[in-house]
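ingest -> fold -> write
write: protein_1
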Amino acid sequence: MAKSTVDVTRADAVLIGGGVASATLAALLSELEPGWELEVLEKLDAVGQESSDGWNNAGTGHSALCELNYTPQDVDGSVSPAKAISINEQFQVSRQFWAHLVESGRIGDTSFIHPVPHMSFVHGLESTDYLRRRHDALVANPLFDRMRFTTSHEQLAEWAPLVSEGRPVTESIAATWSPDGTDVNFGQLTRNLFAFAETVGTTVRTGREVISLRRMGGEWGVMSRSSATGAVHVTRTPFVFVGAGGNALPLLQDSGIDEIRGFGGFPISGEWLRCTNEEIIARHDAKVYGRASVGAPPMSVPHLDTRFVDGRRSLMFGPYAGWSPKFLKTGRYTDLFASIKPGNIAQMVAVAPPNLDLMTYLAKELAATSGKRFAALTEYMPGAREEDWEPVTAGQRVQVIAPDPKKVGVLQFGTQLITAADGSIGGMLGASPGASTATTIMLDMMAAVFSDRIDAWRPRIARMIPSYGTSLSDDADAAHSSLERTASILGLSH
């Protein structure tokens, strides 16, 4: 009886996962090393379908213009702008790279990005005072200096009529508004980036689930299985990037690298309300972010959100937090339990007590009726009618549980880059603002894992991304020039 054989090929790099992180890395490497043969393995039948999908991803183009969780308030009432400035700087890097790809003809259109004003909205005297302090802390920075602040109901009605209508004029409110905000369809951007990479030397294989990562001498063996035929394939490569969203954690664990030891993940799911009334959709042109409830994860910060998906304008509110043990929307119910290993079980157990407020919040969200969820919408849109909205399942997020010598386990709301000491493998864990800042994250990873090449790449990177290695916040002329130039190329000018 003939023995079955396993097909073995070779690539210069293998990228696991067909989302925006892998797509960004493929595009960068295609520009810097056009002679390399890259292979992308995606278990679904198309790329950009999980966290990068237009309905699953927040789509905001996270630049900290409106996201209040990036500007924490200290006990003395002061507001720190540092994290917001850092995130905005990283988003400008993404904008510059996208503008380069469009200007050079690598990407044929700009329909993946739209200009949408970013707003923050709060009510109550305490929150109004916070938003004023936040505005004052940010507006001195050239990346935020077009942001406007108001406590006027009349001005709110001009910026966001749906938020203003039906609201008592005696209510204490405050809002900020920035014309520099965007809506980004990261699913479409992902497809555009891969389409360019494929013209240079990248092979994208969909319907290929990675089932094993093993050392093979000085290389990695990436074993994948075809969902169509069941055939098993092994790709040998000197470098692997794991950009598989929530599934990155178990894949990195399977690799056995020391750097992933102690890390765990906590999955959070959710839902949106999507407007079905075209007249209402047409009357709102903003992303309006509020303050999170006590214990709420950053991904659950409520927002009334103008979005463009599949060429159509839409209006969404949410997300409402939920919970599922799956690590992907299309994952398995055993994902969370399978990720618990001897090296991270202590962190997984220890992270619960300090996050009881999060557990309580999630329990309340899961128990909330549709009526209670709709009531949350009316806080931002007093005139909303329940018949104009439908529920839509949001994407799955896996928040990082990071090892810490003092706290044993720390639940992080953000993005974590993991790289092996020998530079042979890297991966990205976590959620927002990962998609918006993916270019910076990939550049940081490339500097770590391709230390022998990064110096030769720097001049080319600087031509694609003029602010590379500098801070726009330190140079007002450079910041304004970058905003204006990228807005012009990407079709964002109002």
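write: protein_2
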Amino acid sequence: MSPLDSCLLDRIRLRWVPLLLLVGLSGCTNGEYYAQLFDGQLDLLRRREPVAAIVADPARDPELRRRLAMAEQARAFASRELGLPDNRSYRLYAQLERPFVVWNLFAAPELSLAPLTHCFPVAGCVAYRGYYAQGAARGAAALLQQDGWDTYVAGIEAYSTLGWFDDPLLSSMLRWDDERLAALIFHELAHQQFYLADDTAFNESYASFVEREGLRQWRAARGLAPTDQRGERQREQFTALILASRARLERLYASPVADGRKRAAKAAEFARLRRDYRQLRDGPWQGDGRYDAWIYAPLNNAKLLPFGLYDQWLPAFAALFRQVWGDWPAFYARVRALGNLSPAARAQALRILAANPAASAAVKNSTAFTSGGER
């Protein structure tokens, strides 16, 4: 089982790209690690079969056929109505013999929230390593722990190869309901539409906006009412708790106090986080304990790393979408233009959009933004 409920895990699932094996590994020294990437991706490719063939086969499991038929409809909608890539991705299916496709390993120092990063061609630098076997991820975590690192291993239901392969629907993805499955298809195809190396918050906020707006339009096209926002509000409130705790820890670690006092204060901060969560759960949430398993499992710095990446720039991309009057091709063009800016200029443009959408004409009319600017 996932350490988080599926509703939150889909918010923090971090994409990992095994195609890196195929584009050069100069300077890499961990041969065993890259060998398991190659073997795992090859096994996944071998398991693929066309969704249409499964849906048409009366001998296959009826529920599987129903789920895949729904996914086919969402996949067609993604390209037809949302302007997302029209290719073979998510028109294939792979049955796995495990609950997750990969396990991601996060690591941070005992008294720091700076992640241990790993840099690859194409994808750039990311704050995790992916393993196809849970035992391999836990073994790598144990070695880091011996060197004093905080570690966290998270099971991941899906990842994107950014269009380098025809990504299949996975049996692990079918753990989600129909709407979350459709939303995931929109999210992953958004990464194929545009991906900016070395800026995870930009990539995930952009794809999360496409996911949310795509799901809203998908429901409207099927004559369904808007979704209940209670679960989304709870996710946002829980994420806000984690980010507030992380900010307090960052101030603590940057302070001049002795390491022993920092360790004691770190333990006290995690106790405070659990206490704040209980107040939220037993108060406004009326006893809904959907995050109990995560919050009452061991806490450390590495476990806090994934939070916030998927939400940081959501208001900015929502404002950008309104600027172009909901025109998807124009929206993607503006996203690419933002990606062409230098990191500092891009962050400034996003801050303007997020802080005051009504005043975002300052960004819209920026010569650097509309022309692509300079990296």
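write: annotation protein_2
Confidence is low (pLDDT under 50) at residues 1-29, 359-375.
Residues 230-254 form the longest helix (25 residues).
pipeline exit 0
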